[in-house]
Amino acid sequence: MRQIILDRKYYFYSVIYFLVVALAHWRLNPNLETVVFGIGGLIGLHLLDATELALDMRPTEIRPSPFRNLLTQLVLFILGVFVITSSPTNIGSGIVLFLLLRILLLQRDDYQSQGHLSQWLPDLSVASHKAFLNIEGVIFIVISLLFILI
Predict the structure, then answer these.
(1) Is residue 19 part of a domain?
(2) More exposed terminus of the chain, fewer Cβ within 10 Å: N or C?
(3) Is 61 helix (H, G, I), strand (E, B) or coil?
(4) Phi, psi (deg, nearest 5) at residue 79
(5) Cα-only R_g, the chain
(6) SS3 category, 90
(7) Does 39 fall in a domain?
(8) 97, 147 in Cβ contact below 8 A?
(9) What tens digit of pLDDT does each residue of 21-30 get?
(10) CA distance 3 to 19
């Protein structure tokens, strides 16, 4: 069985995100729900890779992952808003927020290294990829603020 260990930068950004969101949401008064949110965050951070590994769908140049596309992202954003606004427990919110963070970071890395997101967005023109990434970042911030304020 192969282990799922991410690059250090993903853990670094996740810890920073966790601290900012947890401090803002629990107003410097962490409790058990903060721990539950953190556990959900760990699950969400590794969920994409674990799913691809379990289904033997690791992305390659020849065969991209079916989970790394525009439709999946749209569903995840809608699911994220639904979970954050209606879930009674913070584990679901942690899973969704950290999964969205992981996808956003993966796309940012792909854009920085390749200059495009063609594996993620094959139907969009390369010129629109940067705008898509910026819009996605704003949507992620809005969803995070929803969690903080609710």
Answers:
(1) yes
(2) N
(3) coil
(4) -60, -40
(5) 16
(6) helix
(7) yes
(8) yes
(9) 999 999 988 8
(10) 26
